[in-house]
Amino acid sequence: MPRILIIDDDEGLRRVLGQILVRAGYLVTAAVDGGEGLKSFRNEPVDLVVCDLIMPDKEGLETISALRKEFPAVKIIAISGGARVTGYDFLPAASGLGANVALAKPFTREHILETVEQLLGRARVVASA
Description:
Layout: E1 3-7, H1 11-23, E2 27-31, H2 34-43, E3 48-52, H3 60-70, E4 75-80, H4 82-86, H5 91-97, E5 101-104, H6 109-120
Helix pairs in contact: 2-3
């Protein structure tokens, strides 16, 4: 069963995204910021990381760069709603640092599942909502 690490400081998003992914058949762990996420990954590597970009302490761009340097094969989805808040879109920078996909928040359940499945090379899993 593929393993996914969610790195996001928003507890509600971590919970909802985790539920979506678990119901779709993934094992999910979570971290509140990049430092905790890197520590978690080093202790227990995963197949895919979903990483927010704007977080306190170790932010997402720094985290993606570190993941890509230490673990070049890991699949990474960068997520951010920062352009709505800051007026600056960090998603292209995340792609430049090695994120496989960059998604703007909010995204739909279907969009995140399709993206995860494409990156992990899995056939579509139909699960009840």
